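seq as requested:
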Amino acid sequence: MSYAMKNSRRAGGVQTPMLKLPVERSYILIGLVLAWFLALLIRAFYLQGMDNHFLRQKGDERSRRVIELTAHRGMITDRNGEPLAISTPVESVWVSPKDFEITPERIRQLGKILEMSEADVKSRFTRSQRDFIYLKRQVPPETAERVMQVNAPGVFLQREYRRYYPAGEVVAHILGFTGVEDNGQEGLELTYQKWLAGKPGNRHVIKDRLGHIVEDVESVQPPQDGHDLAISIDRKIQYLAYRELKAAVIAQKAKAGAIVVLDAKTGEILALANLPAYNPNNRTKLNRNSTRNRAVTDTFEPGSTMKPFTAAAVLESGKFTPASLIQTAPGSFTIGSATIHDSHPEGTLTISQVIQKSSNVGAAKMALSLQPEYLWNVFDQMGFGKVPHAGFPGEATGRLRPYKTWQPIEQATMAYGHGISVSLLQLARAYMAFTGDGEIRPVSLIKVDAQPAGVKVISPETSQAVRSMLELVVLPGGTAPRAQVMGYRVAGKTGTAHKEENGRYAENRYIASFVGLAPASNPRLIVAVMIDEPSNGQYYGGAVAAPVFSQVMAGALRLLSVPPDAPTNNILPLESAPEVKEVV
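struct tokens:
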């Protein structure tokens, strides 16, 4: 590189060298600078005038918001329009961290209002890199108003709804509950999620730093509210059933209990309750064991409540009549290496007396008189081993093993409810075969407007004959005089079954049950009761479950204004009607 030195300037006697670039290089430098500025101008014009999507996007990220407009969840009512599940408006507090100025005073104020620790509030911002975080969900409107009075930039509200259940634990197992996002988690809330939830809308707006809406930038898309749902439950009968079941479980020191009340004419479930229960409005200490709808999802061996179906099978076969005789002496019956026993040995009994006295030997001999396939078909038509399709999630199928695998002892024990398992709802539905003309109708948790068509499973003559046998059960000499109802003829059957444990039957653990119908002259209701492991000295179905049936049936018939079919003095004193005890 060459330099020209000039000596024309002097500073304080010191010569200063002067630098001079070649003219060509100066032009090149000036040209590059002008080209750079021209490129910037063209780029700015392109971004702002022709393709402004990028700048819009960045601007929208700072000021534009999409507000979700929550749909109002449909209400659930009982059959008479009484509210069972309603949605109340609440607010959720959310924060845009990049717009929020964290100061100790604001943290303290928000924590105090929202009942959160200052450390918890602060951690919401330091642990998240998102542009949207919830500070607290579903706070009351008055609390949300106090939050906004703090006047903190970056703090916003979002309207939501919280589910409230006026009847609390009384209907908890039927309705289930919703989660924090207002989606069904259990019960009918889950089954009918789409029907109840509706579709949320949205609103595109521009907000300033304080969260104030400046303008709408697009047309509002309104939410589509959910539909109301009228279920088959009668709230008054439901409360009655729950109250009596709870009293019995406490009095008998039982592990659990369940009850089902069916409309025999329509198949509608008028009441369904379980214990233990839970409060769906306060689930902070929810025990998952308490949320089980035992009447629908749990199965048990029904014991002697199966004997009416065995009687129906032999009557339908034409081999027996209600007056046919069966020898049950000496109170035991040996099949191979196993022996069946009666709790109270009898002699020769009619078919009707086998049901009245609940003879295991008599039931076993009836079952063994039939071909396995024939008996299996009767049980199958009654709905055992099949889902009841009541409209509840997790309905149990029970267990009805294929007849080709039956051994003679298994066929015999199945006649009195061992080796077969059912849910309480299945059992109640099957008893519909004895309420009229031998038809079983679909069961439903949803209110129906017309009587659904049924499936004929036995003849009307057999249905009437078995119903007459069941009437004997609550009379002197039967196993359930405590099931009597003043002013009404009652028919039903007790069950007292050992519980299965580790493949064997436990010695001192029982399930007590009773299934009955009334008025016997023209049945309107079916009530099924199950008490799991009563441990207060009584465990027979006639002593533990039958009184619950009596109280619930009496109250329900009166609530429905069902005309009496017996005089008001029809109840026989218990001391003059000794119970016949049973255990299978």
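The two ends are 116 Å apart (CA to CA).
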